[in-house]
Design a protein that fits this description.
Distance between the termini: 65 Å
Shape: globular
Strand content: 35-45%
Largest sheet: 8 strands, mixed
Number of strands: 38
C-alpha cells in the first residue's frame, strides 16, 4: 500500500556493550486533577480514552513492562474495565499484574481479585493465552489503570514490536527498547547477528526514535488517533502505526542480499527434512502405478499425504498445548512423519515434495507470508514474515501450486490466505528466489442456493432449501467442522441459514453430504419455515426478491474510505428460488430484470412467473481480490446497485371475493 512506508535504520551501538540496568516504571503515575475532571469532546464523542500508555522492553533482563491508564466517559465505556491481555504461553509468561480504579472524586480502589487464563485460537491452529480480570467500581468519570510484566526464557531474545494504535485515542504513549548488550553471541533468524534494525510504519511526521547511550531506543508520541475498522479491510498489522525491531547481520541493510542468503539457509533446512529416505520412496511407489501419467501420480501422492493425521487442526488440549518446546529434541524428518502417520501443515507439505521427488517428479517447497496475518514487504528484511509452506510440482512442463498441509484442500487449490501472496521458493541446484503464488479466481469458488417454497395467505413461507459449496467456501466449512462432531456441524449449518432469513425463522437440517471428500461439492438440505416472510396489508402481500439477502447489512455505506478493500477471495453465488403463490392471490408487480456488469463484478437478478409460481434467479460475482482506495467509488456503486436490486419487492394482490 502507498501509505505503508517502511525504512531501515542502524543503531549506533553494537551488541557487545555491557548490559544496562532495567528501566523501571514508576509504581503509579501521579493522578492529574485535570484528568479526573476531563469529559469527552462533544465534537468527537467517545466512550473512553487512553491517557497514558508505556512499554519498556529489556532483552538483558528478558522482560517487558506494560502500563496503561484509561479515562471512562460513558456507561458503554465501562466495558473497558474487563481487561484482556493476549500472550503466547509457549514463549511468554505474565507476572506482577496490578490494577486500580480512581473514582471521579479521587477515591482509589485497588484491584484485589484474581486473574484468569483462558486459551483462545486465532486463525488455524494459532493458540494464545489471554489473562483476564475486571477492575472494580468503574463508572463514567473513573480512571482505570493496570500494569504487568511479560517475561521469557533466559536463553532467548525478543526484539519488540511496538503497536502504537489501538481502538481508543491515546493522549500520550512512550516506548523504550534496551537491546541485548552482553558478551554472548546473538543468533538472528538465520545466523550470527551483530546489529539491531528497525522498520516503522505510518508514524507521524514529527515522531522520531531516539537512539540513546548504550543502544537504548525511545519513542514518545502524543495524540495518537484511534484505529477504526472498516468493512473488508486488509489485516490490521499492515495498517496500524508500528515499529518492528530485528537482530540481524550487515546484510539486513541490503534486502536483495538478505533474501538470497536467508533463502539458502532455509532451503538447506528443508533438504535435511526431506532427506533420501528409502521408506518415503517405497511409500511413494506403492501409491502410484507404472501406467499412471505424471498428473495421475501427483494426484495419488497428494491424496496419500492428505490421509495422514493433520495435527494443525486437532482440538486444543488447553494450557498444555502452550508449554515450551523441547529445544534439545532431535530434528524431525519426512520419514518420521510418514512412520508416525501424523504431522503439522508444513511438515506434510515437505513430505509431499519428498514423495514426488522419489518417483522422479520435480517438486519444491515455497515459504509464504499468508495474507490473513500480514502483507509481504520485500524491503523489510525479516524472515518472520514467512510463516507457512506450500508445494510446487512440475507436471509435464507446467508448475502447479498445491497445499497438501491443509486438511480437505482439493487438488490444485491453495487455502485462500496463501493465494496471491509473496514468498521464497526453492529452485534447481539449491538456489531460491522471491516469487508469488497464483491469485485466486472467482470461478473456483461457487455457492449455489436452490429453494422450493410455498407462500401462505398470512405471509408465512414453507419449503426446502439446498445449499452447495465448492472451492474456498467448501474448504472453510470443512475446516471448521474438523473440531466438532455431527451435531456441531448441524448446528453450524442451521445457524448459517437462519442468519440469512428474517427473525423468527425455523430451520431444520435434513441432510449434509461430502464432508470428507474435497473433490465433491459440499451440500446441505434444509426444511424451513419463515413466519413473517411477506409483509401484509388488507389486500396485498409484499416481499423482497433477494430472499437470502434481505436481512444482510449493506456493505460500504460510508461515502469515504481510508483503507483498501480486501476480499479473502473472489467468488460467485447463484440463487435459484421458486415460490408457489397462495391460491387467491395474483401478481400485481414483478420487478424487471436488473443487470449490473463491470470489469470486476457481475450481478443479474431475473424474475418471471409461470402459472401460480414465481421464479427468481440471482447471479452475483466478485472477480477481484484487492481494491485500492481509488476504486472504492465504483465498488461502492456496484454494491449499492446490488442492494437496490435485492430489495426490489414482489407485490401480490388478493383476488376480489
Amino acid at each position: 500500500m502507498s501509505s505503508s512506508r517502511f525504512f531501515l535504520a542502524l543503531t549506533a551501538a553494537s551488541l557487545s556493550m555491557l548490559a544496562r540496568p532495567l528501566f523501571a516504571l514508576e509504581d503509579w503515575q501521579p493522578i492529574n486533577a485535570q484528568d479526573l475532571k476531563m469529559t469527552a469532546d462533544p465534537a468527537h464523542p467517545e466512550d473512553a480514552i487512553i491517557l497514558y500508555h508505556e512499554e519498556t522492553s529489556d532483552d538483558n533482563r528478558n522482560h517487558r513492562s506494560i502500563y496503561k491508564r484509561l479515562k471512562i466517559f460513558t456507561q458503554k465505556g465501562r466495558e473497558y474495565a474487563n481487561v484482556e491481555i493476549d500472550y503466547s504461553g509457549r514463549d511468554f509468561h505474565i507476572t506482577s499484574v496490578k490494577a486500580r480504579t480512581i473514582s471521579p472524586d479521587g477515591t482509589i480502589t485497588p484491584f484485589t481479585g484474581k486473574t484468569y487464563d483462558k486459551t483462545i485460537v486465532k486463525g488455524h491452529g494459532i493458540k494464545y493465552l489471554t489473562r483476564t480480570f475486571t477492575l472494580p467500581n468503574v463508572q463514567p468519570g473513573s480512571i482505570i489503570e493496570w500494569k504487568y510484566t511479560e517475561y521469557w526464557d533466559d536463553h532467548s531474545l525478543y526484539a519488540p514490536h511496538w503497536i502504537l494504535q489501538e481502538g481508543l485515542r491515546q493522549k500520550l504513549a512512550k516506548f523504550t527498547f534496551i537491546p541485548y548488550g552482553g558478551s554472548r553471541d546473538v543468533i538472528g533468524e538465520h545466523g550470527l547477528a551483530n546489529r539491531v534494525y528497525y522498520a516503522s510504519l505510518g508514524l507521524p511526521k514529527d515522531a522520531r526514535i531516539k537512539e540513546l547511550r548504550g543502544g537504548k531506543m525511545e519513542l514518545e508520541v502524543k495524540d495518537i488517533p484511534a484505529f477504526h475498522d472498516e468493512d473488508l479491510e486488509p489485516p490490521a498489522t499492515v495498517l496500524k502505526m508500528r515499529v518492528d525491531f530485528f537482530y540481524g547481520s550487515d546484510k539486513m541493510g541490503k534486502p536483495a542480499e538478505y533474501w538470497k542468503e536467508q533463502g539458502k539457509y532455509w532451503s538447506k533446512e528443508v533438504e535435511k527434512f526431506i532427506g533420501h529416505s528409502a521408506a518415503v520412496a517405497s511409500a511413494a511407489r506403492q501409491a502410484v502405478t507404472g501406467s499412471d501419467n505424471t498428473e495421475q501420480k501427483v494426484r495419488k501422492l497428494y491424496a496419500r499425504v492428505q490421509k495422514i493425521r493433520n495435527l494443525s487442526y486437532q482440538e486444543s488440549n488447553g494450557l498444555d498445548d502452550l508449554m515450551p518446546e523441547d529445544k534439545n529434541a532431535p530434528k524431525i524428518t519426512a520419514e518420521d512423519i510418514l512412520q508416525k502417520n501424523e504431522g503439522k501443515h508444513d511438515q506434510l507439505a515437505r513430505l509431499f515434495v519428498a514423495m514426488a521427488r522419489s518417483v522422479n517428479i520435480p517438486a519444491w517447497v515455497m515459504r509464504v507470508a499468508p495474507r490473513d496475518e500480514t502483507f509481504f514487504q520485500v524491503n523489510l528484511p525479516s524472515w518472520r514474515q514467512l510463516t507457512s509452506e506450500v508445494a510446487i510440482v512440475n507436471i509435464d512442463g507446467k508448475e502447479i501450486f498445491l497445499d497438501p498441509g491443509t486438511v480437505f484442500c482439493p487438488f490444485g487449490l491453495l487455502e485462500w490466505m496463501r493465494t496471491g501472496v509473496q514468498g521464497v521458493r526453492q529452485e534447481k541446484k539449491g538456489e531460491t528466489t522471491l516469487t508469488g503464488t497464483p491469485p485466486p479466481a472467482y470461478k473456483e469458488t461457487l455457492t449455489l442456493r436452490v429453494a422450493r417454497l410455498t407462500l401462505a395467505p398470512d405471509g408465512s413461507l414453507d419449503g426446502t432449501v439446498k445449499f452447495s459449496w465448492t472451492g474456498q467456501e467448501a474448504l472453510s466449512r470443512r475446516i471448521d467442522a474438523v473440531s466438532t462432531d455431527q451435531n456441531g456441524r448441524k448446528e453450524q449449518l442451521e445457524s448459517e441459514l437462519t442468519n440469512l432469513l428474517p427473525a423468527g425463522s425455523v430451520v431444520q437440517l435434513l441432510e449434509s453430504t461430502s464432508w470428507t471428500n474435497p473433490d465433491e461439492p459440499l451440500s446441505a438440505t434444509f426444511k424451513v419455515r419463515v413466519p413473517s416472510f411477506a409483509s401484509s396489508t388488507s389486500k396485498r402481500l409484499l416481499f423482497a426478491s433477494g430472499v437470502f439477502e434481505s436481512v444482510n447489512k449493506p456493505l460500504f455505506v460510508s461515502t469515504e474510505r481510508k483503507y483498501a478493500v480486501h476480499f479473502d477471495y473472489p467468488y460467485r453465488s447463484i440463487d435459484d428460488v421458486q415460490i408457489k403463490l397462495p391460491a387467491n392471490f395474483k401478481i400485481e408487480d414483478l420487478p424487471k430484470t436488473r443487470l449490473i456488469q463491470t470489469a470486476f463484478s457481475y450481478y443479474k437478478s431475473e424474475r418471471s412467473a409461470s402459472g401460480t409460481t414465481i421464479s427468481m434467479r440471482r447471479d452475483f460475482a466478485i472477480a477481484g481480490m484487492a481494491f485500492p482506495v481509488k476504486y472504492y467509488g465504483p465498488l461502492r456503486k456496484f454494491f449499492q446497485g446490488v442492494t437496490a436490486g435485492d430489495e426490489e419487492r414482489v407485490v401480490l394482490m388478493a383476488a376480489a371475493k
